[in-house]
Amino acid sequence: MDIVAPAVSDYLLENCSPADDLLRELAEETRAKLPDAAMMQISHDEGEFLTMITRLMGARRVVEVGVFTGYSSICIARGMPADGHLLACDVSEEWTAIARGYWERAGLTDRIELRVGPALETLRALPVDPVLDMAFIDADKVGYPDYYAELVPRLRPGGLIVLDNVLRGGRVLNPDPDSAADVTINRLNKFIVEDERVESVMLPVRDGVTLARKR
Ligand SMILES: C[S@@+](CC[C@H](N)C(=O)[O-])C[C@H]1O[C@@H](n2cnc3c(N)ncnc32)[C@H](O)[C@@H]1O
């Protein structure tokens, strides 16, 4: 299912601040080196959305779950002040090696700390202090409920969790019981609406983005 009509989708991309040369190169290198995985990368309008929301939040302490080759990390880090800290979690040494090269070239290595390993272990090892301004979840879909559960208590009041792919190509409307990812995301979507700790809105940005703001 197209969440947004393809022509509108193209129009949205054409009518946001354009990607700079570095982001364009990262997208091209990801497609060239990892053709089968490149579709995991966020689109540029979603990247601009992340930069904008990070800046609007004044976010200085952010966690990202799901780095891949680093596109979203760059977009988030660019929205943070120079003394901001982005903890970037991923399991892949191979994919994050590409990310590290681009963070370096973007002049963002001071702001981004990479943790390679299962994100749940990384999150559970963080102090349970409500200090995070923002988190972005874009990793394995069956892990989302656990990431959400670990992140909400660590958000400051007014802090924000951004969850990607919450529409699963429209499949959440009628999830196939055999798809653990679709079933999990559908359940989590319903859980978040009922979760009194947050107020939330789901946006048709690309594959669906939820903003859950801690009360
Ligand atoms: C959709 S991609 C992230 C795309 C990225 N946000 C971007 O802008 O390019 C999902 C990432 O989650 C990572 N991942 C999968 N399972 C994970 C886990 N258990 N812990 C941490 N990262 C995981 C994968 O290695 C992959 O890089």
Question: In short, what is this structure?
Answer:
With 215 residues, the chain is an alpha/beta fold. Helix content is 40%, strand content 20%.
Explain what this protein looks like in three dimensions.
The chain is α/β, with parallel strands linked by helices and 215 residues long. The protein has one domain (6-214): Rossmann fold (3-Layer(aba) Sandwich), CATH 3.40.50.150. Helices cover 40% and strands 20% of the residues. The protein has eight helices and seven strands. It has helices spanning 6-14, 21-33, 44-57, 71-78, 93-105, 119-124, 144-151, 180-194; strands at 61-65, 85-90, 112-116, 132-137, 155-164, 198-203, 209-214. Strands 3-2-1-4-5-7-6 form a seven-stranded mixed sheet, sandwiched between helices. α4 (71-78) links the parallel β1 and β2. α3 (44-57) runs parallel beside α4. The N and C termini lie far apart (33 Å). S-adenosylmethionine is lined by residues 40-42, 66-69, 71-72, 89-92, 95, 118-119, 138-140, 143. Residues 40-42, 66-69, 71-72, 89-92, 95, 118-119, 138-140, 143 line the site of S-adenosylmethionine (SAM).
- The class by helix and strand makeup works out as alpha/beta
Task: Name the strands of the widest sheet in spatial order.
Answer: 3-2-1-4-5-7-6
Count of runs of 4 or more consecutive helical residues: 8
> Terminal Cα separation, in Å?
33 Å
Mean pLDDT: 97
Strand content: 15-25%
For the sheet with most strands, the description reads:
7 strands, mixed
How big is the Rg? 16 Å
CATH fold category name: Rossmann fold
- CATH class identity: Alpha Beta
State the share of residues found in helices, binned by percent: 40-55%
Bound molecule types: S-adenosylmethionine
Oligomer: single chain
Q: What is the CATH architecture term?
A: 3-Layer(aba) Sandwich
Instruction: Indicate how many domains the architecture comprises.
Output: 1
Indicate the low-confidence ranges by residue numbers: none
Order of helices and strands: HHHEHEHEHEHEHEE
The counted number of beta strands is 7
